[in-house]
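=== RUN LOG ===
request id: a7f3
mode: sequence -> structure
chains: 1
length: 253
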Amino acid sequence: MPPVRLLRSRAWLVGACYASWGVFFLVGLGLNLACAPLLLLPHRARYGHRVRAVIRRLFAFWLGWFHASGVLQVVWHGFETPLPSGCVYIANHPTLLDATFLLARLPEAICIFKPALMRNPAVGPAALMGGYAAGRPGVDLVRDVAGRIAAGQSLLIFPEGTRTGPGETLGPLKPGFALIAARAHAPVQLILIRATPGVAPRGRPWWRPPALLPARVDLFLDRRWDHDPTCSALELTGQVERHLLASLPPPPP
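=== RESULT ===
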């Protein structure tokens, strides 16, 4: 490509990247403003299914925006058939965008939010109306989320607890997902995520475009662990961690 066209292409993609974040925040603000008065409704839990469906469609719209603008290509591998509900979905966490990608695809999925985020007016109303779980890690949280999974919802959780650190293949896994799956007698489904370096990683400003544009994120429907009462939470966590380390490529230098 001639240098002038290359510069124009880069300028377009960087501008489209910033516009993508603008779309995200404007749509998110509108959703939370719409959800805020709904928090006053009695028995608001009955509306959780509808709000989660709206959130899923909005994230799918955002993915469509990425594809249409040419900024980011999200490629799904092994997702040809509908995914089951009543499952604990886990994934590695290389980018800030991972949850938005997966919530656009997973059925009846909830996340676990920190209490501070639930009190944030820019995030909390939609999360509360969607029935997402909130609370500090502990027995009560495990019991609450496991009950929801047993009732047919799904859980999306990143066992690392935060994004993978710079220069790491995988952060240490926490066993919370395995405790919840054991209590709910639910299977654990692993999703592998591989992303172009610089797509909103940990340690880099979220708004800064990656050096390589257009960027790409690949999501692979990987191994599934059915409920096994003889396998402890720590054993299952170890199995998942070893499998991830063997499956993920080493970090770039």
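=== NOTES ===
The radius of gyration is 19 Å.
The mean pLDDT is 91.
=== END ===
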